[in-house]
C-alpha cells in the first residue's frame, strides 16, 4: 500500500531516530556547553597543552620585565594590592562560564595573530613613550590573540570578560591617577565634613583639609578613594560576569559604583576624625593606615550587596499563567 509524501514526512518526524530531538528531550544549554568543552578537550587537548606551554614560555620570556614591574607595584602601592587576585579571579570566571563554552575550531585560527601583532605594536608604543601602563595593557591583547589562535574566534569572544578583567591588575599612569584623584579628594572632603557636622562635630573644610577644633585632617591623594573606587568597579564587573541579569539591572549596578565608592571613602575619613576626637591620635593613625586598608573594601562590598538586594526587591520574578489551560482544567 502506497503512502503519500505528507504521511511519510509525518512518520519521519514521529521516529525518535534521525532528525532533531524534540525540544523537551534536549539537554539544558548549560549541559550542552559543558559537554562541548569536554568533547573539545578530548580532541584538541594535546594540541592545546603543547601550544599553551610553548606560547606561555614565549610570553614569560617577552614580558618578564613587565611582569616583574607589575608585581612590584602590587607589593608597594596599597591602591593596587588587589593585583595579586586578578589572575586567579579571571581563571575562575572562565570556570563559572563553562556552561556557555562554544564549539572551537579543529585547527589553528591564524587570524588570532592579528591581535598578537597588535599587542607587540602597543607594547613598542609604551616603551617608546616610557609609559609602563601601556606595556601592561598590551598583555590583554596578547592573551586574547593567543586564545583566538588556539580555539577560534568564538572562544575568544567567550573568554573576553576574563581577559578584560585583567585590566584591573595594571596600575594607572601617574598623570591619569592624579587626574582621577584630585576631584575624588575634593568630593571626599566635602562629604566627610558634611557627615561630621551632621554628627555634631565642629568641622570646617578648607581645600582638602578638614578642621575639627585644633585637629587638622589632611585628605591626601592616598585618601582620595581611588583604591576603593577601583575595588568596587572590580566587584561590579565580576558580578556582571557571573550572574545573568537584565540589561537595565546591569546599568543600575554600574551607576551605583560611584556613590558606593564615595560613601565608603567618606566613612573612612569620618571614622578617622571621630577616633582622633574620642580615643587618641595614635588610634586614628593606626586605623587610617593599617585597619582601613583591610576593612573598607569589604565594607564597600557590603554596600554593593545592599544595592543588589534592593534591585531584587524592586523587581520580583513573576510566573506566567496560561489562562486557557486553567479554564480547561476547571471544565474537567
Description:
With 332 residues, this protein is mostly helical. It has two domains: 26-169, no CATH class; 174-314, no CATH class. It has helices at 5-14, 29-76, 83-96, 113-129, 132-151, 153-158, 160-165, 174-198, 226-242, 247-255, 257-278, 281-314, 323-331, and strands at 203-206, 209-212, 215-218. It has a three-stranded antiparallel beta sheet with strand order 1-2-3, covered by helices on one side. α9 crosses α11 (257-278). The longest helix has 48 residues, at 29-76. It is flat and about 70 Å long.
The low-confidence runs, each spanning 5 or more residues with pLDDT under 50, are 12-29
Number of helices: 13
* Count of distinct strands: 3
pLDDT averaged residue by residue: 77
Instruction: Quickly give the structural class.
Output: mainly alpha
Q: Strand order across the biggest sheet?
A: 1-2-3
> End-to-end distance, in Å?
40 Å
Q: Mind summarizing the main beta sheet?
A: 3 strands, antiparallel
Q: Helix share of residues?
A: over 70%
Form type: flat
Number of domains: 2
Amino acid at each position: 500500500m502506497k503512502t503519500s509524501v505528507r504521511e511519510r514526512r509525518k512518520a519521519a518526524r514521529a521516529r525518535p531516530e534521525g532528525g532533531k530531538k524534540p525540544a523537551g528531550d534536549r539537554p539544558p544549554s548549560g549541559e550542552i556547553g559543558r559537554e562541548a568543552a569536554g568533547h573539545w578537550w578530548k580532541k584538541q587537548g594535546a594540541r592545546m597543552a603543547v601550544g599553551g606551554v610553548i606560547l606561555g614560555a614565549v610570553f614569560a620570556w617577552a614580558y618578564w620585565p613587565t611582569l616583574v614591574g607589575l608585581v612590584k607595584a602590587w607589593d608597594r602601592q596599597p591602591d593596587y594590592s588587589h593585583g595579586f587576585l586578578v589572575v586567579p579571579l579571571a581563571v575562575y570566571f572562565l570556570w563559572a562560564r563553562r556552561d556557555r563554552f562554544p564549539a572551537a575550531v579543529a585547527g589553528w585560527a591564524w587570524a588570532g595573530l592579528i591581535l598578537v601583532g597588535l599587542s607587540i605594536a602597543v607594547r613598542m608604543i609604551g616603551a617608546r613613550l616610557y609609559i609602563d601602563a601601556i606595556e601592561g595593557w598590551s598583555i590583554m591583547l596578547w592573551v586574547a590573540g593567543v586564545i583566538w589562535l588556539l580555539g577560534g574566534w568564538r572562544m575568544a569572544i567567550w573568554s573576553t570578560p576574563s581577559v578584560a578583567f585583567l585590566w584591573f591588575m595594571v596600575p594607572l599612569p601617574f598623570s591619569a591617577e592624579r587626574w582621577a584623584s584630585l576631584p575624588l579628594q575634593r568630593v571626599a572632603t566635602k562629604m566627610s565634613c558634611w557627615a561630621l557636622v551632621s554628627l555634631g562635630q565642629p568641622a570646617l573644610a578648607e581645600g582638602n583639609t578638614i578642621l575639627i577644633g585644633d585637629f587638622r585632617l589632611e585628605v591626601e591623594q592616598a585618601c582620595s578613594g581611588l583604591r576603593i573606587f577601583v575595588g568596587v568597579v572590580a566587584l561590579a564587573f565580576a558580578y556582571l560576569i557571573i550572574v545573568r541579569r537584565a540589561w537595565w539591572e546591569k546599568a543600575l549596578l554600574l551607576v551605583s559604583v560611584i556613590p558606593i565608592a564615595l560613601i565608603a571613602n567618606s566613612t573612612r575619613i569620618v571614622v578617622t576624625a571621630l577616633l582622633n576626637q574620642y580615643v587618641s591620635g595614635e588610634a586614628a593613625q593606626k586605623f587610617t593606615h593599617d585597619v582601613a586598608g583591610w576593612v573598607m573594601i569589604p565594607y564597600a562590598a557590603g554596600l554593593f550587596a545592599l544595592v543588589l538586594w534592593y534591585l531584587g526587591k524592586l523587581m520580583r520574578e513573576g510566573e506566567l499563567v496560561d489562562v486557557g489551560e486553567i479554564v480547561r482544567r476547571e471544565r474537567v
